[in-house]
Design brief:
Blueprint lengths: L1 H20 L3 H13 L3 H14 L4 H13 L3 H8 L10 H13 L3 H14 L4 H13 L5 H11 L4 H12 L5 H13 L6 H17 L12 H11 L2 H4 L5 H18 L7 H11 L3 H13 L1 H10 L1 H12 L17
């Protein structure tokens, strides 16, 4: 009897130990994501499939598998698993986004466009779907892409992708104001990514074009009241701009612009971007902010020298910046609607 009891106890202990050693679906999924981030797509798939055995047909695990196949360029498998996802009753924005990425990779533009239209109908306030639909149109040189980026900004004001795309679009048009405004908002929303250096250079060059091409009134969208107000205040800074557009002169231009805007235009056009600039000025961080925006884009060596000689000032700003989240306010969309 003692032997039987000992055997039963040993068996129960071994089963408990086995259960403790077998990872649950969530742990397996996280392990798969770690492998995926490391570029080990085969091991990632092993973990995801094991997780799927425990939670069959789980949407989150299936999305990870689609993304893993996408990253490993196995688009046929990504399409096979990803295509049913938007049809599910629990489909989310990412279900559409992932399948759209696969369609774009295999250049199935017709199916991709149908997918985005369906996704936007299901999720009309999704900035990511407007952004990626616009990118698909832009890739085939369809300039109606800007309508979707603008709509994305209007309905999902804190999603950075639409500002990124719209800023680049306006940079190449005669209407420079929105390129500058959207470019800076993008940098405040997405301050440290592979795309930030690109947009910093674009915004710096955009200020040069604004003054050098004398486009403060010429060829601008003067029907837009926000643009008219912006250009009116900016035109008062032309004398400073005559000294050249550098990080230092832009600090002066933008300081005077912001002070005048807050005094004369803020009541008619309250805008979170200019509120943020005012906050930085009052906190003694506006010089460092402008150096962060324009310094390296203008001259990396000069910028590095500035941060060395103003180390405490620059550290104060970067610490403040990394410790807060920039958020746009409601009812501050002033762009003219695109037909």
């Amino acid at each position: 009897m003692k032997r039987i009891l000992s055997f039963v106890l040993a068996f129960q202990c071994s089963m408990i130990l086995f259960a403790q050693q077998t990872p649950d679906a969530k742990t397996l999924q996280e392990t798969g994501k770690t492998f995926m981030r490391q570029g080990d797509y085969t091991n990632a798939l092993l973990s995801f499939n094991k997780a799927l055995q425990q939670k069959p047909n789980d949407l989150e695990i299936l999305k990870d598998i689609v993304f893993n196949y996408y990253l490993s360029h196995d688009y046929s498998k990504a399409l096979e698993i990803g295509k049913p996802l938007p049809e599910r009753p629990d489909a989310d924005v990412q279900s559409y986004q992932l399948l759209g990425m696969v369609y774009k990779a295999i250049e199935e533009r017709k199916d991709c466009e149908k997918l985005y239209k369906k996704g936007i109908k299901a999720f009309p306030n999704s900035g990511v779907l407007y952004s990626e639909y616009g990118e698909m149109l832009w890739a085939k040189q369809d300039y109606s892409a800007i309508k979707f980026w603008e709509k994305g900004i209007e309905v999902d004001k804190n999603y950075s992708g639409n500002y990124y795309n719209a800023a680049k679009y306006y940079y190449f048009t005669k209407d420079k104001v929105w390129g500058l405004v959207y470019g800076e908002i993008f940098l405040d929303l997405e301050s440290y990514s592979r795309r930030t250096e690109e947009i910093k250079k674009l915004v710096l060059e955009g200020y040069k074009k604004l003054f050098v091409e004398q486009s403060l009134t010429k060829d601008q969208d003067m029907k837009n009241e926000f643009v008219k107000a912006y250009l009116e205040v900016m035109s008062h800074q032309s004398d400073i701009a005559a000294n050249g557009i550098t990080a230092e002169t832009l600090t002066m231009i933008r300081t005077k612009f912001m002070l005048e805007w807050m005094d004369k235009k803020a009541l008619s056009f309250p805008y979170k971007l200019f509120d943020y600039q005012q906050q930085l000025l009052k906190g003694g961080m506006f010089d460092a902010y402008n150096q962060w925006l324009f310094g390296a884009a203008q001259n990396l060596t000069t910028f590095q020298n500035w941060t060395t000689t103003h180390a405490a000032e620059y550290e104060k700003f970067t610490t403040f910046q990394k410790g807060r989240v920039f958020k746009l306010a409601d009812n501050q969309y002033y762009q003219t609607k695109k037909d």
